[in-house]
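Contributing new records

If you add data, match the layout below exactly. Sequence lines come first and carry their own label; structure lines follow with theirs. Keep one chain per record. Anything else will be rejected by the validation script.
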Amino acid sequence: MRHRLLPLAAAITGAFAAPAGAFTLDILHINDFHSRIESINKFDATCSSDEEAAGECFGGAARLATEIRARRDAAEARGEPALLLSTGDNFQGSLFFSTYSGKAELAFLNEMGFDAMVLGNHEFDLGPAPLAAFIEGANFPVLFGNTDASADPKLGPLDKGPLILDVAGEKVAILGAITPETAEISTPGPTVSFGDPIAYLKGAVAAVAAEGVDHIIVLSHLGVPADIRVAEQVPGIDAIVGGHSHTLFSNTVEGAPEPYPLLVDGPDGVKVPIVSAGAYSKYLGDLTLTFDDAGKVTAATGSTILLDASVTPDPKVLEEIKAYVGPIEELKAKKVAVIGADIDGSRESCRAGECPMGDLVAEAMRDRVKGQGVTIALQNGGGLRASIQGGEVSKGDVLAVLPFQNTLSTFNIPGAGIVAALENGVSQVEEGGGRFPQVAGLKFSWDPSVAPNAGRIKEVLVFEGGAWVPIAPTKIYTVATNNFMRNGGDGYVALRDQGTEAYDFGPNLEDVLGDYLAKHPDYVPGTDGRITRIE
């Protein structure tokens, strides 16, 4: 991988002077914004005006802008420089992205004044050309990290990194890293590839160190387990600002999976702080690093700040949001159904086991094409992006659940191929992987004590002749899924390689779900034990 250093930036110099004998740096950070330009409710979906009036909303670009400005002003008052960083996945997740293909996200990231971001996997969802347009319009460097886009005529010339900034007279390097699974879980196309992030970072650290840099920050879109491996294996890193796994690091939020920061023993005998700020703009991370004269971190403190009703949205940004809302407001408000209770589609539920939203979407898919002989449906848990509140359901609610504009695919496949697909689906539960399979028309049990891809799937049953019977390895079944999975996304290569007579151009999944809910008035969600985890 090439190591091309950017010239020293002057934009952050002059306003601050490092204290004698120490250098203190504030890092404000977000990750996995996922197009949450408007504020969100407790279900991570767009907040209504009534919820906003009741003080029940979080995040959004306007609250982010307010808190970022306040934190920057506070740092300046202390005589400390502050950097604003994003670890990617700003694309995908709301009608703003579906309508404007990244232009709206770009406008508000520019408005907030980011200093750098690294690419996330979802930045590749529309392919290289829209991403290139986003990068060209950004007022901040976009780091490719271990991405090799040299074969792409649009993206190749835009590759930036590592980045070296002059911050209050100190050289600070910002290095990027993105999950190599992007090739499977997004659609970068054949001109873009992804190398080993650890190998890339070892080389990049050496490259910037040769330039005299001894403050090195990694912007990571790898996920927490991989961030820990990076900290353990790559010497010379001072901090890792993470994303991809949507993990909230906090010392105050009950049940937060990691402290803020998480300190990991590095290979050179120093502890490396790792941080992450949840997802969907609900939190802003604020990490303070203190360095000694030798450039070593002597203190790492901070927190994730909840952007709730106590944070007043920036009025200027709210007005700018309104300009984008107009063309999509009518679509968002269209009523599609009424449901009898909340439908849980949370990341925590749908990436680890059977969840109500998974059952619903899989049943809707199967129902839509049952006249074509389809008996089984598969949906990846990571494709479900929100819950739905009980009561009236709008088109906007449905699109929040299924924002990727995937289409319904049908194909034939032997039973052994289905079992292989399920084996892949349960291979990353410990990492919160989005490939966990939500199903209809079959039941399966799996054993997490078995190593991934080594026989976790223990039993698969299909419904035939009014009874549940074991799946037959050589029998051909007609299956429905989404076009992303059918083409090998999320590691579902068995569907791609063993499926025959495939048709990938059915209706959009959000329409399938909306139509199914409309056919089932007062739908009451639940689960029925079709997926069993063996304890």
